[in-house]
Amino acid sequence: MKKLTSRIDKERLLLGIAAPLLALVAAIVVTTVVILATGKNPGDAFSDMLTYGTASDSQVYILNKATTYYLAGVAVAIGFRMNLFNIGVDGQYRLAAFFAAVLGGALTVPGWIAVPLMIICAMGVGAVWAGIAGILKVTRGVSEVISTIMLNSIATAIIAYLLQPGKLAELQSGGTVVSTKPLPQDSWFFSFDTGAAGVLWGFIVIAVIVGVAYWFVLGRTRFGFDLRTVGQSETAAAASGVSVKRMIATSMVISGAVAGLIGMPTLLNDSHQFSNDFPSGIGFTGIAIALLGRNSPIGIALGALLWGFLERTTNHLEFQGYDKEILGVIQGVIVLCVVIAYEVVRRYGLKRQQQRVGAELAAQAAARTEKQEVA
Amino acid sequence: MKILYGMQQPDEGTITVNGERIAFHTPADAIARGIGMVHQHFMLADNLTVLENVVLGAEKLYGIGAKARTKIKEISDAYGLNVRPDVLMEELGVADRQRVEILKVLYRGAKILILDEPTAVLVPQEVDALFDNLRELKAEGLTVIFISHKLGEVLSVADEITVIRRGTTVGTVEPGSTTSKQLAELMVGSELPTPETEESTVTDVPLLKVEGLHLSQTDLDGIERIILDEISFTIHKGEVLGIAGVEGNGQSELVEAIMGIRNPDAGVISLDDTDISHAPTRRRREAGVGYIPEDRHRHGLLLEAPLWENRILGHVTERPNSRGGLLDLKAARADTERIISAYDVRTPGIEVTAGSLSGGNQQKLIVGREMSHRPKLLIAAHPTRGVDVGAQAAIWDHIREARREGLAVLLISADLDELIGLSDTLRVMYRGRLVADADPATITPEELGSAMTGAATGHLEHAEDDDR
């Protein structure tokens, strides 16, 4: 009995790894074809990506990028575990980063007070923005997909309105950039200087903490169990005593709060101000990464690192004379393949398990009758 | 059965139809060979007419107009199905719907009919009518495969009976030369289980009191529909209250109101003298209400989660599943092992998903889980539906045993033998009301059946002295 259990587990693990691997291989094949079609040598491109992507300065760059992407992936994954499609992560983090930047610029307290205040402010803004969609869903039945998309646009408009000289922003000395008041150096987040390789953002520590908290809350607490139950079957959850509506609103708020953190590594470790060129669209990257990582804390980390790696290396490919659109192709193909591969592998796994259980029981029954006959 | 209908592929073995060996890859292959299936759960569109439902997906055969109508009439007359083609499906009762399902299959040219538990939703009178239809079909040269857990029915309608237990054929018998007792022994592999309770354990301590419960719902057209009306009853400690009724007469809603999944408009539900009319489901469960839902896949299990997570489901706030706000995975796993051995859940381990177990084993897991928290009140909705005879006997035993220790049970079932055998008190539900009551010691399934269709009300007396 023990043996079979462990065998099923091992198999499940194998199947779990099979899906993303399958997707990666498919993506490499498609990319090869695309590069061949443009009349270039794919082998050179891949070897260049490998050597360049593993250089130490690239490693630091990738880790920094992955910090942001990881937070985005977790924010989306919280919704996914509940069967909620929080497309609004994008608007949530931009609005959160903007208000945190405004607050940080206005504060005159020491950094060790200002930094936590900004982080709390960002999480609060993200939570409120996502909470609107959550409340609309539970009270009026509005699909969170629709409401969060619209809240994204509204967030863009609000930021555009407030990010003007005389409102909450100011014209920088160059005269071309409009931004919030830069943070005083005291309010920057700590970072690790790795010498020639560059500066590693200290916010990676927060990302790790968020990952551990995500794993712990979902897997080890009652709240997490309730949340996963609702995600797997709303009807069973209701019958088991979970208030589905409250759960939807709560998880939306938590997803938004984590989304609020996405802009923080950039704001506190890099730009130190919110300007027109503050990175946007990371919320959508988060969706891809959550899919890739299968909502698991470690999977999302691998997905985030892969995304960072791809961005870094394909940027470099451009200098080698390849088309920069390769990045989009690879990413698109990966996401598409991942979604298909997961579904295929999941169905296969369930079917296989059913067969195995059946076979094992038949064997048990046969053994039992034999014993009876002997006796 | 799924293999016969092309929904699943066999690993080994052959299927021979009319002397020809064949392999089915899809249901379409099976239909092309003249095999048709009538599912346990009807697959009909309520907002279409009978004619439209029949031609749906088979438009190529006889079109959708007059020709199709003639064909339907022809089939209906030939087999005495009595189907009216232009009635809206939603106006039809369960028995009529079933006849439409049969007609649908015949319309597609089926010569071999598979009926999966066709009598589960019918009252005894309707079952007889169905059997007449089946005999008609047989007389016309069609083959019928009739799958059922109910031995009496199989004996009365079949020409040959094959008993399947745990995936293998254990025997083939002639109904003429066998009794239902022998048949049951073949099915269980041991002696016959009966649902009869021995001595009464009813006390005079009321446990669950329901008074004047009312529930109505406004449908999409803005019409208010009364689902539950003036429901009042009391269940004492050690008492099993059985509710009979054709499905869809408010039983599910009554259960959901008692569980707190639906909020009643009026009325009081009190458990142990505490008003729980509007308490959340979790508080009711913590107060000692166990729940065996009628649809275990939708309400009782997380099919893609391992067994030990399913053991936590519904009792996440109670020990051994959690301490404080944290789950106690080790204790939950250990307790799952205990349930599996104590309730004889046949599974290779606790890490397999609930969906890979058979229905009977899923149900035993649910019963084990609910009983493990020492409930004061057990709500059992169709506790043995779709469960093999062995598991059925085990589930009855568990209910009886707990009842002896003072458990109050609200039993809802479509299996009248089960209701009569287990219950201390019987009530009949019809169109959202409790219309009749009966003494399970004397009543027969046929007498109950007439009350279930609304033909009799009040206190049902057995036999001749029934003058109401």
TrEMBL record, chain A:
Signal peptide: none annotated. Its main location: membrane. The chain crosses the membrane at residues 12-38, 58-80, 92-109, 115-136, 145-163, 198-218, 248-268, 326-345. One of its GO terms (cellular component) is plasma membrane. Pfam families: BPD_transp_2. One of its GO terms (molecular function) is transmembrane transporter activity. It is found in: Cell membrane. This is ABC transporter permease. Keywords: Cell membrane, Membrane, Transmembrane, Transmembrane helix. It is a multi-pass membrane protein. PANTHER family: ABC TRANSPORTER, PERMEASE PROTEIN, GUANOSINE ABC TRANSPORTER PERMEASE PROTEIN NUPP. InterPro entries: ABC_transp_permease.
Automatic annotation (TrEMBL), chain B:
It comes from the Bacteria. It holds the Pfam family ABC_tran. The keyword Transport applies. The lineage of its organism: Bacteria, Bacillati, Actinomycetota, Actinomycetes, Kitasatosporales. Residues 1-191, 208-456 form the ABC transporter domain. Residues 445-468 are annotated as: Disordered. Gene3D superfamilies: P-loop containing nucleotide triphosphate hydrolases. Coiled coil: none annotated. PANTHER family: CARBOHYDRATE TRANSPORT ATP-BINDING PROTEIN MG119-RELATED, GALACTOFURANOSE TRANSPORTER ATP-BINDING PROTEIN YTFR. Keywords: ATP-binding, Nucleotide-binding, Repeat, Transport. GO terms for molecular function: ATP binding; ATP hydrolysis activity. The keyword Nucleotide-binding applies. This is Sugar ABC transporter ATP-binding protein.
